Amino acid sequence: MPTPLHFATTEVRRLGRPEQPVVAIAKEAPKAAQALEPSLPTTMRALVKDRAGPGLELKRVPVPSIGPTDVLVRVRMAGICGTDGHIYDWDKWSQSRIVPPLIVGHEFMGTVAAVGGAVCNVAVGDRVAVEGHISCGACLLCRTGQEYICERVKILGIDRDGAFADYVSVPEHNVWKLDPAVPDAWAAVFDPLGNAVHTVMAAGVSAKSAIISGVGSIGLMAIPVARAAGASRVIAIDINPQKLALAKSLGADDVYDGRDPDLRQKVYALTGGHGADVLLEMSGSGAAINAGLGMVRNGGRAALLGLPSDDVSLNLAENIIFKGLTVLGINGRKMFETWYQMQAMVTARRIDLSPIITHVIPLERFREAFELLKEGKAVKIVIDVGSKAG
């Protein structure tokens, strides 16, 4: 069958001559895909949840195919998220959500290896990160500028194959071109950094005192973000002394053990007896959420990002209703407002992620990485996928 032709009529302006229409020009249809390497491999390494039960397996699987609007990314570095830990352990949540076999991982960066024929804004060789929430584009939320809470969202590494692999296929719409000033390891954790940025910016911390409850990796990232956003005082709360020490080094003015029975009184004393202006809740602990709400002043704001593992009991009357609090649920990153904000902060060196990324570990040593996190011996681990890709 002959190659189909696409016709376009354009207009030419010639110096010194009248404008005139130009006859239709025949062009070949775009190619289905353009590969980075002369011959893309047919198989790749991938970290797979291949069955119900604890653990993951490193296997060789087919390189994913791409459609006309898709991009194939060659993964260079990928961050381990708490969600990946839940899938590794095969806890109650993962048993109800994950359908094996599945390639896990959703925090990553890499280079474009191939593009579909309808891809317009991304080219082979581009250095990119990827928004892991794939929206439908058609629901009420997507059509009103809120696709980050899409009703039919699919998440990489949870609902479809993810990024703990040499290659991953994603829609062009989700690809973010990286500024050359962003280091690879930092770009690999733009997903959780975006959670921190979204939480801080939604809460509005400028010239305000802010409690950060729970200083895991995202809570720690929120400290320099809050500083960059103009917080007047940052109070970090956790039960891990090592993480509290790191919080202090990252710019927290005050750090407290969440088990301190006098914690509420101490926070009120720091804030002129009023309570903090803002709560940034990162822990997901029901007790910590209730305690944090109790430390916010009347008329304050609370932005909740941490995910509780079960139902939470709250004193709604005393801690929310009578205080007139504004409570915000935070999910993912605003697409793509948050991405512009965090890349601006990183390129301006307003935030430094180096102290938070405590380990970079090759893909083959994935079990060691998950055990380090489980034992609390690491803060944020980045998996080096690209050094031995293929």
Structure in words:
It is a single chain. By secondary structure, this protein is an alpha/beta fold. The chain folds into two domains: 34-188 and 360-388, Quinone Oxidoreductase, Chain A, domain 1 (Alpha-Beta Complex); 192-329, NAD(P)-binding Rossmann-like Domain (Rossmann fold). It is built from twelve helices and 23 strands. The protein has helices at residues 82-89, 92-97, 140-143, 184-187, 190-203, 217-228, 241-249, 263-270, 286-294, 316-321, 337-347, 366-374; strands at 5-8, 11-12, 20-21, 25-28, 33-35, 43-49, 57-62, 70-79, 102-103, 107-116, 127-130, 133-134, 154-155, 167-171, 175-177, 209-213, 233-238, 254-257, 276-281, 296-304, 326-329, 357-362, 380-384. Strands 5, 8, 10, 11, 14, 15, 22 and 23 form an eight-stranded mixed sheet that branches. It is globular. The model is unreliable at 1-31 (pLDDT under 50).
Classify the fold: give the CATH topology of the largest domain.
Answer: Quinone Oxidoreductase, Chain A, domain 1
- The residue fraction in helices comes out at 25-40%
Count of individual helical segments: 12
How many beta strands in the DSSP annotation? 23
Q: Give the uncertain stretches in residue-range form.
A: 1-31
Determine Rg (CA atoms, Å). Answer: 24 Å
- For the record, the count of structural domains works out to 2
Structural class determined from secondary elements: alpha/beta
What is the CATH superfamily classification of the largest domain? Answer: Medium-chain alcohol dehydrogenases, catalytic domain
Report the sheet-strand fraction.
25-35%
Global shape? globular
**Major β-sheet profile:** 8 strands, mixed
CATH architecture of the largest domain: Alpha-Beta Complex
In the CATH scheme, the class of the largest domain would be Alpha Beta
Write down the overall mean pLDDT: 91
Instruction: State the distance separating the first and last CA atoms.
Output: 36 Å
